[in-house]
Structures are given as structure tokens and as C-alpha cells.
TrEMBL record:
This is 6,7-dimethyl-8-ribityllumazine synthase. It comes from Lineolata rhizophorae. It is an enzyme of class 2 (transferase). Its EC number is 2.5.1.78. One of its GO terms (molecular function) is 6,7-dimethyl-8-ribityllumazine synthase activity. It catalyses: (2S)-2-hydroxy-3-oxobutyl phosphate + 5-amino-6-(D-ribitylamino)uracil = 6,7-dimethyl-8-(1-D-ribityl)lumazine + phosphate + 2 H2O + H(+). CDD domains: Lumazine_synthase-I. Catalyzes the formation of 6,7-dimethyl-8-ribityllumazine by condensation of 5-amino-6-(D-ribitylamino)uracil with 3,4-dihydroxy-2-butanone 4-phosphate. This is the penultimate step in the biosynthesis of riboflavin. One of its GO terms (cellular component) is mitochondrial intermembrane space. One of its GO terms (biological process) is riboflavin biosynthetic process.
Length: 204
């Protein structure tokens, strides 16, 4: 029987026009590496070009909201100053009509160069918090969660919540696909980034 949990049936969205950022914390790096790798696999499977996936890191999860905010605004500046990227971004925005919402993007893959300078279509924030003896876990989880939500609403860019809040090492490992039958949540985050990147315009 299919599991009750999870994102439901996955539709295939075409990510070949997208530019996606990944920013990850370095705390608990073995688990982080597996999650980032899972996210990148899903992005590649959806057609996102390798050169259009930009990966940055920060020390810990507490730094994620600031990093996402800077990554996105820097990509906007880069896009307007490089000319072609700005034009490309405008072109892409106007190319997706409201009726495209659940369909794959209709733009030909060749429309986006292998290495784009357009603003990010979505950013995945990846962190792993494992509960310890102090209150760090609670404070960082709360601050990072609120901060990531604030950034996506303030900036108008989809931010995928790739923050594991595990009560034990084992819980974190299982959610990073490390172990028999374990599911890598990073794969879901990659798919979520593509879906939101495709859908982010034309909600009217
Ligand atoms: C300090 C701290 C602790 C105790 N635990 C974690 C953790 O489990 N996962 C994580 O991503 N970061 C942790 N950090 C680091 C903070 O997120 C942050 O990097 C520092 O407090 C510096 O601002």
C-alpha cells in the first residue's frame, strides 16, 4: 500500500529553463552531502542543466536565511548588469501563461544557455539540526524556519525548506537515504524546486 505521507504522486516538470540555487549548511556534513546529492539528482532528472545549478555553503543552519536572501538578490543584480541575463529573465517570465500551471514549461530547452545569469527560479536551503543537550536545536530551528519563510515571501522567490530537524542521528540518516530502504528527502526538495520554479509565474 502506498504511504500516506509524502508529497503525493510526482508529476514530471521540465526544469530545462530553470536556474536553481542550493545553499547548504556544513554542520552534520555526511548527512548534508547525501541530501544535496539527492536534490541535485532530481534537478538533473528534471532537465536542469548542471551549469544552472549553483551551490553555496554556510557554516550552520542559522545562516541559511541570510545566505538565501543574498544569493537571490545577487543573482538579480547579476542578471540586470549582464544584459542578456536580464532579457532572458523577462523573456522567461512572459513565456509561461496561467494555463501552463500544471504542465511542463513550453519554452524550448535551447532558450536557456548552459550557463545562465538569470535570477534564480528557486533556491533550496539545506540544513541538518540534530537535537542535543541544550536549547540550540529549538532556537536555530525556529529562527531558520521563520527566516526562510520570510525570505521567500519578501523576495518573491520559492525557497524550498530543506531543513531536517531530527531528534537523533539515526532519524537524520534515514531521512537522507542512508540505510536500507531509507528515503532521501533531498530528492523531494529537488522536485519541489523544479515544480515551484515552473509554476512561480501565472498564478492568476
Ligand atoms: C551551534 C550549532 C549547533 C549546536 N547545532 C547545529 C546543528 O545541529 N546544525 C546546524 O546546522 N548548525 C548547528 N549549529 C551552528 C549554528 O547553526 C550557527 O552556524 C552558529 O550558531 C553560528 O551562527
Amino acid at each position: 500500500m502506498a504511504s500516506l505521507k509524502g508529497p503525493g504522486e510526482a508529476k514530471a516538470y521540465d526544469g530545462s529553463n530553470l536556474r536553481i540555487g542550493i545553499v547548504h549548511a556544513r554542520w552534520n556534513s555526511a548527512i548534508i552531502d547525501a541530501l544535496v546529492s539527492g536534490a541535485k539528482q532530481s534537478l538533473a532528472a528534471a532537465g536542469v542543466k548542471e551549469d544552472n545549478i549553483v551551490v553555496q555553503s554556510v557554516p550552520g543552519s542559522y545562516e541559511l536565511p541570510f545566505a538565501v536572501q543574498r544569493m537571490y538578490t545577487a543573482s538579480q543584480i547579476q542578471s540586470t548588469s549582464s544584459g542578456s541575463g536580464g532579457a532572458l529573465a523577462t523573456d522567461l517570465l512572459s513565456s509561461t501563461s496561467a494555463t501552463d500551471l500544471t504542465a511542463s514549461s513550453t519554452k524550448p530547452a535551447s532558450a536557456v544557455p548552459a550557463s545562465s545569469t538569470a535570477p534564480f527560479d528557486a533556491i533550496i536551503a539545506v540544513g541538518v539540526l540534530i537535537k542535543g543537550e541544550t536549547m540550540h536545536f529549538e532556537y536555530i530551528a525556529e529562527a531558520a524556519s521563520q527566516g526562510l519563510m520570510r525570505v521567500q515571501l519578501d523576495q518573491g522567490v520559492p525557497v524550498v525548506f530543506g531543513l531536517l530537524t531530527a531528534l537523533s542521528d539515526e532519524q537524520a540518516k534515514v531521512r537522507a537515504g542512508l540505510g536500507d530502504g531509507a528515503h532521501n528527502h533531498g530528492e523531494d526538495w529537488g522536485r519541489a524546486a523544479v515544480e515551484l520554479g515552473v509554476k512561480k509565474v501565472g498564478w492568476a
